[in-house]
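Reopening: structure tokens for the magnesium ion complex, inputs below.
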Amino acid sequence: MSRVSLTQYLVEKQREKNLIPAELRLLLEVVARACKRISFSVRKGELAGVLGDAGTGNVQGEQQKKLDVIANEVLLEANEWGGNLAAMASEEMDHSYPIPNRYPRGSFLLLFDPLDGSSNIDVNVSVGTIFSVLRMPEGVTDPADEHFLQPGSRQVAAGYAVYGPSTQLVLTVGDGVAEFTLDSDIGSWWLTGNNLTIPADTREYAINASNRRHWMAPVRRYVEELEAGSQGPRGKDFNMRWVASMVADIHRIITRGGIFMYPRDQREPDKPGKLRLMYEANPMGWLIEQAGGAATDGTRRILDIEPEKLHQRVAVFMGSKNEVERVTSYHREL
Ligand code: AHM
Ligand code: MG
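Re-run output (same inputs, fresh job):
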């Protein structure tokens, strides 16, 4: 059977469908190459001395792992010289990173969470890289944080790599969702799933239930109804899964359905959840929508949110459409 490579898939999007410019195709290939390098480091693990804390913190006040720092550097180095980007921004950096003057500057902006779920890395559970691509606003020559503050609906590409039992790359350029698997013997990405579709109904949900006592009423109601199973108002049993790596949880949902929730809660009512809008919720939200699912913050479509800050947090409900609509309607009723 002849397989389609990532390059061939992207060339078809560019040439036959005229969906993406050549610069974006090249940029995505470089991002995929960086993910490949990260995958090799993740796989070597202890043998390469890459596990454990880096001894530094990031802008979110989180302890950085050695692999957080390595993955961030791999992405910066791989992407800075290509000529297609104006600037990059990362979960691991306080401010955006304009492409240095020694390289040509392009018209795209790249955001990433270099190693999502990195608290799982030392226990050998799946982690991943999430990325989002925006266009630089017209007429801007000196990119700064403010130029990244565009709603998710303006993304031109988004994806993630999941470093699990196999390494996979899941990607959208606005024409459905494609999945590629890395053949690590030859270092090539091959198309292993196209037009991925999330079923509208599901029996699986994902939430960190240790926060239950802090949840707001709509989330409590929704989860209690799921837990009541066939004896409750839903009339069917549900199963719960929580990897604590957003990439792994979303990958399961894109593969077989489900709903993922990280709500805001009563501990800090003004703090909108844990996850970050620009490089976690927006790319994942767009992938989920492109696969036929839905993504809201409880009241609004994630992709319509006008960002105010680069590292802004947001509540997240995403996955199978009918479940996301239900929990969102509970928020509206109260
Ligand atoms: P990170 O980007 O610092 O790794 O944090 C985000 C992660 C998500 O991958 C995951 O869904 C969530 O945090 C897990 O949170 P919790 O520790 O509350 O289970
Ligand atoms: Mg993250």
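The two ends are 54 Å apart (CA to CA). Residues 22-44 form the longest helix (23 residues). Marking as resolved unless the reporter disagrees.
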